[in-house]
Write a structure and sequence with these properties.
Layout (H helix, E strand, L loop, with lengths): L8 E4 L2 E4 L12 E7 L9 E5 L1 E8 L2 E6 L9 E8 L4 E3 L15 E5 L12 E7 L2
Antiparallel strand pairs: 1-2, 3-4, 3-10, 5-6, 6-9, 7-8, 7-10
Length: 133
């Protein structure tokens, strides 16, 4: 039998903190940023849900910059992308590693959605996850 504990705050004596203030976000074992977005919408409406992502910049068809709320400690972070096009029965995703395209900065990362061809396209279901020290 599974058990769940649900709390909004935890206190020790007179100190009361929200649960999300207790998580050690400096650990290298947790996700530093993630976003689930709809790339077919205008940039201001794209984000469905996120953590440590302030906005997405639409650079053109299938070309996005994910902007972080809090910067990464350096540019040596891991980027994972996943995209699905349910309407056409395809799943694909590219974190374009060509140095002329990809811009992996401490404040953002540029990614693109592409099928097996070199054509980029906007996707309804896209996600990006960042891990860093």
């Amino acid at each position: 039998m599974a058990s769940n504990i649900t709390v909004d705050t935890i206190s020790k004596g007179a100190t009361v903190k929200a649960v999300d203030q207790i998580v050690d976000t400096t650990s290298s074992q947790i996700c530093k940023a993630w976003v689930n977005f709809n790339g077919t919408l205008v940039a201001a409406s794209m984000i469905r849900a996120s953590y440590n992502v302030s906005s997405i910049t639409d650079n053109g068809v299938g070309d996005y910059t994910v902007n972080f709320t809090t910067a990464m400690p350096d540019v040596n972070y891991s980027v994972s992308c996943g995209q699905c096009d349910w309407n056409n029965g395809r799943s694909f995703g590219v974190y374009d590693a060509r140095s002329t395209f990809t811009k992996q900065l401490v404040s953002s990362v540029r990614v693109r959605n592409a099928a097996q061809s070199t054509d980029t396209l906007d996707i309804v279901n896209a996600s990006v996850t960042i891990h860093s020290n």
